[in-house]
């Protein structure tokens, strides 16, 4: 993937790498569980809840980091046209592609997908593609509230977003307002914390130790003491998300200074293709292992499906950059007419 950040912000690739590996693992583990493989229920439930308590909030936080710079550079209209090319286009292509593959393979997969469910993508996103749908709406909402982003308005926007988040705990909001309420606060925090990021960047190892201690303490309180999971409506959830975000941020800044962790940044650069393709790659691997090779060992299935969910999308995306396979590029990048003068990548 083409880099859009300078070396000062290379840690963001590492954070995306950590985040996308958590996404792949969580979806693979859920797939194995739904397929009836004998995962230890207690361990599975705990790990699943810990991951889901912060990993998607992390991606919305990272998406907000460079929002104001992009808004200043391109303006509202050009920025949103760019998001149509980079978010809406892959959302449509991959929702249809994966959806119809699931319809055709319903006899071999955990879920039974109908054509009607696939075609409802404009008002009800399926599976993990909800993230792209909601992310585009959040960019639109952010453009509206930050078009005149004087410093004095930051506090008011943060408070409003926090109130919106609290509201969704106690009111059953319809889609997509429930998702907007849940995640807009983290996008806003990504916009609003440059000074904190500078402090973390100055002493990342110290922040890793401190944030890890806080993260473990909060997760223990939430899961072990209060016996809650991430789907329970609790004010503690925002603390879990923030502690996880700070932990991944500080860890990414620390790891980005080490040569032997370069691979993590590379995975982060491919996070979008991995997000788009990992379900197909991992599910296909699970079906081959189980139905054809008759391998039902949980550890083997988990390892190979996770590797496939990460490496196969990277391989397909790299192949799409080859002149002889250029048509594959349209799986990820729209024709020039979609871009309307905005950078395609």
Structural summary, described in words:
By secondary structure, this protein is an all-alpha fold. The chain has one domain (7-339). Helices cover 72% and strands 0% of the residues. It is built from 15 helices and no strands. The chain has helices at 11-34, 41-52, 55-64, 67-104, 115-119, 130-146, 152-170, 177-192, 194-202, 204-225, 236-255, 262-269, 271-292, 298-320, 336-339. The radius of gyration is 20 Å and the shape is globular. It starts with 10 loop residues before the first helix and ends in a 6-residue tail after the last helix. Residues 1-6 and 340-345 have low confidence and may be disordered.
List segments where confidence is low: pLDDT < 50 over at least 5 consecutive residues. 1-6, 340-345
- Rg on CA atoms, Å: 20 Å
Quote the beta fraction: under 5%
Instruction: Quote the distance from N terminus to C terminus.
Output: 8 Å
Q: Give the helices and strands as they follow along the chain.
A: HHHHHHHHHHHHHHH
Give helix % range. Answer: over 70%
Global structural class: mainly alpha
Total beta-strand segments: 0
Tell me the count of domains: 1
Major sheet, described briefly? none
Please state the overall shape, judged from the principal axes of the Cα atoms: globular
Give the mean pLDDT: 91
């Amino acid at each position: 993937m083409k880099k859009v950040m300078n070396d000062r912000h290379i840690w963001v690739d590492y954070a995306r790498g950590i985040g996308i590996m958590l996404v792949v693992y969580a979806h693979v583990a859920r797939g194995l569980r739904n397929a009836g493989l004998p995962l230890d229920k207690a361990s599975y439930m705990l790990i699943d809840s810990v991951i889901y308590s912060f990993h998607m909030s992390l991606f919305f936080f990272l998406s907000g980091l460079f929002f104001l710079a992009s808004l200043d550079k391109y303006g509202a209209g050009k920025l949103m046209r760019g998001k149509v090319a980079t978010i809406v286009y892959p959302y449509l292509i991959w929702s249809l592609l994966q959806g119809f593959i699931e319809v055709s393979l319903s006899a071999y997969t955990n879920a039974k997908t109908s054509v009607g469910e696939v075609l409802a993508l404009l008002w009800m996103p399926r599976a993990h593609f909800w993230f792209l749908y909601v992310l585009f709406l959040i960019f639109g909402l952010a453009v509206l509230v930050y078009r005149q982003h004087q410093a004095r308005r930051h506090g008011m926007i943060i408070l409003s977003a926090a109130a919106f988040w609290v509201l969704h705990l106690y009111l059953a909001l319809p889609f997509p307002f429930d998702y907007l309420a849940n995640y807009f606060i983290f996008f806003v925090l990504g916009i609003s914390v440059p000074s904190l990021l500078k402090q973390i960047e100055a002493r990342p190892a110290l922040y890793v130790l401190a944030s890890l201690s806080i993260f473990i303490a909060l997760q223990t309180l939430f899961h072990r003491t209060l016996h809650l999971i991430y789907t329970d409506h609790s004010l503690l959830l925002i603390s879990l998300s923030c502690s996880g975000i700070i932990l991944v941020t500080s860890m990414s800044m620390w790891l980005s200074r080490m040569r032997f962790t370069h691979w993590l940044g590379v995975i982060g650069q491919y996070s979008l293709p991995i997000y788009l393709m990992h379900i197909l790659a991992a599910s296909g691997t699970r079906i081959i292992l189980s139905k054809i090779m008759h391998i039902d060992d949980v550890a083997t299935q988990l390892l190979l499906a996770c590797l496939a969910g990460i490496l196969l999308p990277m391989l397909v995306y790299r192949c799409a950059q080859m002149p002889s396979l250029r048509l594959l590029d349209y799986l990820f990048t729209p024709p020039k007419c979609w871009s309307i003068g905005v950078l395609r990548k």
